[in-house]
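fyi for ur records
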Amino acid sequence: MTNRDSRLSLSADVDPLGPLRDPQDPGYDVFLTGTVFLDIIFTGLDSAPVRGTESWARGMGSSPGGVANMATALARLGLRTSLAAAFGDDHYGEYCWDALEQGEGIDLSMSRTIPGWHSPVTVSMAYEGERTMISHGHEAPPPPDPAPFLQCPPRTRAAVASLAPDRADGWIGEAARRGSRIFADVGWDESGRWDLGALADLEHCDAFLPNAGEAMRYTRTECPRAAARALAERVPVAVVTLGAEGSYAVDSGSGETAEVPGIAVDALDPTGAGDVYVAGFVTGTLAGWPLVDRLAFAGLTAALSVQEFGGSLSAPGWAEVAHWWQTAPDGLRGRYGFLDELLPRDAARGPRRRAVPTIGFRHSA
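which gave:
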């Protein structure tokens, strides 16, 4: 078995792109780059920590975070994923590298380990359905080669990017020129300007997926649906996520709109749910599913993820999707009937690497 075959054998039980694959395809389905954090997550807090007191959490987990959330979610859904990131040469960096490459089958050939650079760390506290995070890290030293990647970037079906005001990432435009479909989200605009024109790489995007608050601020609208329609004037597909209420999307090419309500679950940790949503939407898009099915699947994967610790290692694979489908409420079976054609009849819930309180046990149980 080759290294590449070994990596693929670690991915999902179902290949959503199987019917579309061709020997001339790119080596990987999705490329992404960003910062990998070590996430330490506390759950079971009754309220926010109070100054001058000590709070005890009923649950704790650790896992790779940051861009690792998205990379893991994509890989667990069966997409051949390539990640370019910097890793520290400390124990945290070694743990994150191993969890992603060996545990998830993510290609790290474009990533690098930096001697003497410590891994960025985020502590996340989940309570009252939300989270508060504290992060620490230093910018990674630039690579000795002026080009950011060995192949800038590799040829893939798609790339996932995070846009920021007044920043143009050259690799995004290059990926688009090489035929990659660009999916992007965006973070909070600390400047308060909320200027769509400042998102330089938006012009390269096939799909833009902000949350409702971001979308309304960028479009100066008071309704998420109006925001999606306004954004669809700038990108082929605009998706606005509505949290527990679901999501709404507009396809500007076909004029199609779609809305799918959220799935009610008992949430343990919302860390990374937005990344898992994007991964689900990318999967459905590359597989050629109808818009409404893409929204439904993305919402389902996000709902499954918040029931476990951690942003990356809580991401569901096809075994988790199959398990949910076998016990889905009658009221949802019509909306999610498309899963019948995707899931093997004998799909079983297999072992899945999860976040644990320690930075990986020295010996497997």
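The CA atoms of residues 280 and 298 lie 4 Å apart. thats all i got for now
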